């Protein structure tokens, strides 16, 4: 399986995302494609420098459990993802307070508004307590929120009680998303 073969199988002309959730082709094995934690895509150990190609591959990605695949109507190949398949690289803030909306753009130009369908979450590294913030993009696929964008979220944080404890967090889409316990609470 080569990248050229995979590209040739992607239906063209349709608007929006392909219906990868409805495609159930045979598994054809893994290919040497990796998405690094910083969002860089690699094929055979070399970065893929063509943004339109990366964007195209990102539209045919599917996650099943802990495994990631590129799926076409006739083939499914496994790829490696170091952390999350996308990186949220910009943040646009609309409104304020409980009516605020946080709109993220990913490195592959997906735009997503945090809310009930696209929750934010923060995981802590058990060894270092370093936070890793994520926003849900689509169909089991998340974006790691870039450090600079996370700093913007921290600047927007307000204190709210969650299960009897004060938490710093942000509002978006009518939902309060806790970021961290409030150290002053």
What can you see in these coordinates?
The chain is mainly β and 185 residues long. It folds into two domains: 3-81, duf1285 like fold (Roll); 86-180, duf1285 protein fold, CATH 2.30.270.10. 14% of the residues lie in helices and 46% in strands. It is built from three helices and 15 strands. It has helices at residues 3-8, 51-59, 147-156; strands at residues 27-35, 41-43, 46-47, 61-64, 67-71, 76-81, 86-94, 101-106, 111-113, 120-124, 131-138, 141-145, 158-162, 165-172, 175-181. The strands form three sheets. Strands 3-2-1-6-5-4 form a six-stranded mixed β-sheet. The chain has a six-stranded mixed β-sheet with strand order 9-8-7-12-11-10. The longest helix has 10 residues, at 147-156. The N and C termini lie far apart (56 Å).
Radius of gyration: 18 Å
Tell me what portion of residues adopts beta-strand conformation.
over 45%
Overall structural domain count: 2
Contiguous helical run count: 3
H/E series: HEEEHEEEEEEEEEHEEE
The second-level CATH architecture of the largest domain is Roll
The CATH homologous superfamily of the largest domain corresponds to duf1285 protein
* Largest sheet, spatial ordering of strands: 3-2-1-6-5-4
Question: What is the name of the CATH topology of the largest domain?
Answer: duf1285 protein fold
Mean pLDDT: 92
Report the principal-axis shape. elongated
Low-confidence stretches: none
User: How does the helix and strand content classify structurally?
Assistant: mainly beta
Task: Please give the share of residues in helix.
Answer: 10-25%
Oligomeric state as shown: single chain
By CATH reckoning, the class of the largest domain would read: Mainly Beta
Distance between the termini: 56 Å
Number of strands: 15
Largest sheet: 6 strands, mixed
